[in-house]
Structure formats: structure tokens, C-alpha cells
Design a protein that fits this description.
60 residues, alpha+beta, two-stranded antiparallel sheet, two-stranded antiparallel ribbon, rod-shaped, 13% strand
Length: 60
């Protein structure tokens, strides 16, 4: 069985995990309303997705 010869230092361990950070969320401007929304998500204010009415719009 393979066993490490030396303990992995916290610095080296954290360097290995440097790519695990989450990136910022992507937002696109809606063509119809001009508001920011997540790509590939339903717009909850209008209920539209890819030009089709999916949900009934929320009443404010």
C-alpha cells in the first residue's frame, strides 16, 4: 500500500486547492425588459423563457 513519506504542509495543500474557488455569477441583459437575469433561467417577473410564456407573471 502506498503511504506518503512526509506530511503535506498546509501551504502545499492550499496551493492544490487554489482552483476550487467559485467564480462570479454570470448575468445577461434581457432583450425585452433590459433587466439583468441569469442565462438559461426563467425570468420570474415576466415568466418568459426563450421567447415563450412558461409561468404566469408575478403580481406586485
Amino acid at each position: 500500500m502506498a503511504v506518503p513519506k512526509r506530511k503535506v504542509s498546509p501551504s502545499r495543500r492550499n496551493m492544490r486547492r487554489s482552483h476550487h474557488a467559485l467564480g462570479p455569477n454570470a448575468y445577461v441583459e434581457d432583450k425585452d425588459t433590459g433587466e439583468l437575469r441569469r442565462p438559461h433561467h426563467v425570468d420570474l417577473k415576466t415568466g418568459m423563457y426563450r421567447g415563450r410564456q412558461i409561468l404566469t407573471p408575478k403580481e406586485d
